[in-house]
Every structure is written in C-alpha cells, then in structure tokens.
Known about the structure:
With 443 residues, the chain is of the alpha/beta class. It is built from 16 helices and 16 strands.
Amino acid sequence: MLGEYRIEGRRAADIAASVEHAVGSGELEPGQLLPPMRELAVELGVNPNTVASAYRILRERGVIETSGRRGSRVRSMPATTGREYARMDVPEGARDVANGNPDPALLPSLAEAFAAAAEQGDREPVLYGEALVEPDLARRARAALDADGVPEGPLTVASGSLDAVERVLAAHLKPGDTVAVEDPGWGSLLDLVPALGLRTAPVGLDDEGPRPEDVRRALDAGARALIVTDRAQNPTGAAVTATRARALRAVLREHPQTLLIEDDHGHGIVDLPVHPLAGVTRHWAFVRSVAKAYGPDLRLAVLTGDTTTVDRVTGRHRLGPGWVSRVIQRAVVRLWADEALDTRAVATAYRTRRDLLVDALARRGIEAHGRSGLNVWIPVPDETAAVSRLLHAGWAVAPGARFRLASPPGIRITVATLTPQETTPLAEATARALGPAPARAYV
Length: 443
C-alpha cells in the first residue's frame, strides 16, 4: 500500500508529521491510499484513537482526504506538496495551452510605474505604523467599485485573490465548517479550503454562473460560506448575468448569515459587466485582483466588505506580514493613472481568441464553454485519454480533475496566447482526441 515508506510515531502529532514529511518529499504520492486506522495502530503499537487523531490532523492540514469505507488517501494536491512537484510538465516541442496565464504581450510595461513609485518612496519613505493602504489607491479603487455597483464598505489590500479569500475565510470560519464552492472551480481554491480544515460543498454552474438551486441546496445543508466568481470563472469562463444575480441574491436573502465572498479577478480583461451579489448577507467580501490584467507578479488585490470582515482581516494582516508593499501599491496607482492598459483592447483580444476556438469546436460537433476570461472548458468522456491523445498530437491541455469535485470530466484550454493560425489545428486535434460523441453538460 505504501511501498517502501514506513509511517512512524507513537503520538498523534508524530504520526501526522511522519506522513506529512513523506508527502512533502514525494515518498508518498498524491492519491496514494493510507493504511486503515486499526491496521496502522497495530503496526505502531498504539491505540486506534491515536491514529484517528493523527488522520484528523492531516485532514485539517489539507494533506489527506477520507471517503468513508474507501479509506484515507493523500489528496491530489496536498497542502504540503511543493508547486514544482505537483505541476504538469510540458514536454519539449509541445504547445502549452494548459498554464492559465495571461498573454505577456497584453500586459503593460512596469518599468516606468515602478521607477516613479521608487522615487516617491525615496521622498516619502513608508515606515512602521503607517496606513496599510496607499490613499490614492484606495480612492481610485473605491471609485471603480462604486461604478460597478459594489456596496459601500471599508477597503484593504492583500497579496492576490487567493490570499484575500484565505484571510476572509479564516476571519469567520473554524475547522469543520463547510464552504460552498463552484464545481468545476479554481483548483487552487479547491485545495485551499481543505487546507484550512474546512469542508467543500460543490455547487454546479452553467455559463451564467452558479445554479441557484445548487446554492440553495448547499446552504440548506449547512454551508456557512459561499464563494462566487463574478466573471472569467476558472475553468469554464462563466460570468454571472443580471438575471442570475437576482436569483442568487434571492437565495442569499433566505440565508442572511452566509459569508459571501466574490472574486472579480476578471476585472480589466473582460468586456462583460459585473453584477455583484454583495450587500444581501450580514458578512461579505468583494475581491478584485490586478494579476490577470497587469501581471501575476504584482501580487495585489483590493478587498472591500462589511466593517467586521475587513476589520478582522486588517487586524490579522498587521500581526503577520504587516502590509502589502506600498511601492507595489504606488506602482499600481501609476498604472491606473497613466492608463497603461487599454482594457477594452485586451478584453476584445481574449474574447476573439475564445470565440474562434469555441466556434471551431462547434463546427466539429464539440461542446465547449468560454463566455469570458482566458480559458475554454470542454466536457470529455475520458480525461486521461483526451489529455494523452492531445499531448501526442503536440498540444498540452489541462486535465479537468484539477478543477473538479463531483462534476463530470473535462479539459481546460488556455487561449490567452492562441493565434488564429493555431485555432483550426487545435480544434481538429481535439476532435480526433475525443472522437464522435453526443453533447454533454459539464454540471
């Protein structure tokens, strides 16, 4: 079951540490089945309750998952596994359409913005005890949020969308609580939730966003939080419409104690309006990252929400990293002020690339989804076969398992750098990889 690796320890903490070390080093691989608790207890000469406690520690740390009688196994993306170990390797010569990155050619130059921010830092050094948020950034961000109908609320910043989501979840929930998440959904988020000791409740979606009946079912069953991607949903490209937003707000009114978190990482790269859900529940957060539009390495997201939520996030942030670099904040202000990015042109470019591929696939009888954002989602009968055949044809696509909990199989294609000349060959290769098949829904 474990090959050559031997779990060691007499205390729950030591047993958990032994497993965690093996997972981090690669001696125990993702998906590998662990011994039944009673069997391991006999082998180690300890009480079964000790092993049960160790396994509980590992579940709360996001290292393993337990499926009733099917036992416990290492998670597909355990929190202890380094990104280099878990990432998909693209062989030499294959075209990488799996990575989820924006097109570097559509990102603005950062040199002048950072030079100006550094010069300002020389004149006005930021010292301990000063404001966490650059005043001009707060002013400009608030104006943009107001224009999009996001409710009034205090504002802070975090190191990207995922950092903001983690801080909001930690501010309100405790291990064992359930979070309703989109399925298919953002793989990093699906890994983060169990890593915090929280449970996931999958919510199906279509091109217009989460299905209201699925959200109601999850909240009725006790989910304490709901995370929604407003636009550019990863991996399906879904975007919440005005009609869907009204339906979701109606469901949330029935559950006013729900912690609502909205992720608008598509701001600046999508030409569809945002339809916020915030303001219906007592606690809410709206997160807007600059990563996709201005560059992933900027590591900055604006977060607004109700007073209690933002106050808790800000207070905990002060006790850890303290603040997001004001040099980075000032550089982003410069980029916004100088209109370094033609957001309309960027959104049009991504939409054109998505539409070309979706249309080319449709002409070949293949269902595909990509209403907004950088990706196209294709339902498939067999992910392993589809990924393998496409790789053999020279195309590296992302397997859907990275983004799924209970939804049917699929593959994700990132169109960010896809050229018009590549669209037809990719569509033809996909058609050959899938073969003739009836239309299938992805939720």
